[in-house]
Amino acid sequence: MFVVLLRFSDNKPTAAQHMAGHQEWIQRGLDDGVFLLVGSIQPGLGGAVLAHNTSPEDLRKRVDEDLRRPDVVTAEIIEIAPGMADERLSFLL
Questions:
Q1: pLDDT digits over 46-64, tens only?
Q2: Cα separation, 91 vs 93, whole angstroms
Q3: Adjacency order of strands within the sheet including 2-8
Q4: Disulfide check for 37: which of 17, 22, 50, 76 has CB 3.0–4.6 Å away?
Q5: Using a CB cutoff of 8 Å and minimum separation of 24, what contacts does 9-15 make?
Q6: What's the rounded Cα separation, in Å, for the pair 71 and 11?
Q7: What is the secondary structure of 10-65 as a DSSP string?
Q8: To 10 degrees, what angle do helices 19-31 and 56-66 make?
Q9: How far, in Å, CA of 69 to CA of 13, rounded?
């Protein structure tokens, strides 16, 4: 399981012009069953993705597809080895 943090960088003012492509990238991740949850880092600092059902290498490739936009966000991928979960999230174990 992974947490992807997409933090705005110096070109944040240009983010709006890339939003359609970013939304398509998010939808592909959801449709492919890789993204579980997508949301904003408050207050307006970027976005976060909860991902699973992928390898670190494949997730990095997927994230790099979104990062082709010029210096809008930087990405940090955190891998989590789930040990315990609420039964609603037991599929992650």
A1: 999 999 999 999 999 999 9
A2: 6
A3: 35-41, 46-51, 2-8, 73-79
A4: 50
A5: 9/71, 9/72, 9/73, 9/74, 10/71, 11/70, 11/71, 11/72, 12/72, 14/69, 14/70, 14/72, 15/72, 15/73
A6: 6
A7: TTGGGGGGGHHHHHHHHHHHHHTT-EEEEEEETTTTEEEEEE-SS-HHHHHHHHHH
A8: 150
A9: 13
Distance between CA atoms of 45 and 56, rounded to whole angstroms? 24
pTM of the model: 0.92
Q: Are 4 and 63 in contact (CB under 8 A)?
A: yes
Of 25, 27, 33, the C-alpha closest to 72 is 25
Residue pair 36/82 in contact (Cβ under 8 Å)? The answer is no
Contact 9, 72 (CB under 8 A): yes
Taking the C-alpha atoms of residue 20 and residue 76, their distance in angstroms, rounded to an integer, is 22
Judged against a pLDDT cut of 80, whether residue 69 lies above it is answered with no
